[in-house]
Amino acid sequence: MDIIELDSLNAYYGDKKILNNINMKIKKNKITAIIGPSGCGKSTLLSVLNRMLEENGGSTRGNIAFKGKDISSYDKEEIRKKIGIVFQKPTPFPMSIYKNLTYAPIYYGTRDKKKLEEIVQDKLKVSGLFEEVKQDLGMSALKLSGGQQQRLCIARALTVDPEVLLLDEPCSALDIKNTAHIEEMLLRLSQEYTIIIVTHNLSQAKRISDYTAFILDGELIEYDETEKIFNNPEDNRTKEYIEGIYG
C-alpha cells in the first residue's frame, strides 16, 4: 500500500530548481533510503514532504499526495503531526528529558499527568533510552551524549504518533555503537511507522531499508527494492555511484 505519492514533483529555491520531475510511491510501513552525493536534493525532498520547504522560501510544482489526499489540503500543523522529521544534528530542547517528551503532547491538548507519564515511558522504551535515563528524567537533555540526544529526538518525534518519520542522516555524527542502536530501533519502528531516511552510508541503506532511491542533480535516477538497486542497478549512473563509494 502506498502512503505517499509524488507525481512530477519539482522544487525550487527562488528561480533555482532543486528537484526535477520526481515520481515516487512510498510504501506504508517500509523503510525507504534516499542516497546520492551531497547537494543532489535529498534533504530538500524531505523538507517538501512535511511542507517545511515553503517555510524556508522554497516552492513546489507537481502533485504530492498523502494517503490519497493532496498534501496542500492539509493544515501545515496537521501534516507535521502526521509526518515528523528528525535532523542530522540532534536538536533537544534546552529543558529536561521529561519536558522534551511532553512538550508536543501538551501542545496538542494532552493534560492528563498519567497519560503523559505513559507517553514518556513508552517512547523512551521504544528508543532504547528508558533504562539509561529512567532515574534522571529531570536532567537537562543537553547533558545527554550525542547518541542519546539523537535517540531522544526520535522518541520526541514519536510522542504525537505520526504515521511517517523522516530522518535526515541521523547517524552521520555517531559512533558505531549508537548507529547500531538507531538502526535496530528503526527496524522495530517500521512495523508501525513508514520511515524515509536520507543517508550517505550505503552499508546502512543496505542493512535496514526495503526500498532505495538514488538521486543525482535533483533527478530520481533509480528507485526500486534495495536488494535490486545494489545488486542489479538498471542505470549505469547508479552503478557508478555505488562502485565509487566502495572504491
TrEMBL record:
Sorted UniProt keywords: ATP-binding, Nucleotide-binding, Transport
GO cellular component term, pick one: membrane
Record keyword Acyltransferase present: no
Pfam families cross-referenced by the UniProt entry: ABC_tran (PF00005)
CDD domains named among the record's database cross-references: ABC_PstB_phosphate_transporter (cd03260)
Single GO term (MF): ATP binding
Domain ABC transporter: 4-242
Gene Ontology biological-process entries: phosphate ion transmembrane transport
PANTHER family (alphabetical): ABC TRANSPORTER I FAMILY MEMBER 17
Name under which the protein is recorded: Phosphate ABC transporter ATP-binding protein, PhoT family
Originating species: Proteiniborus ethanoligenes
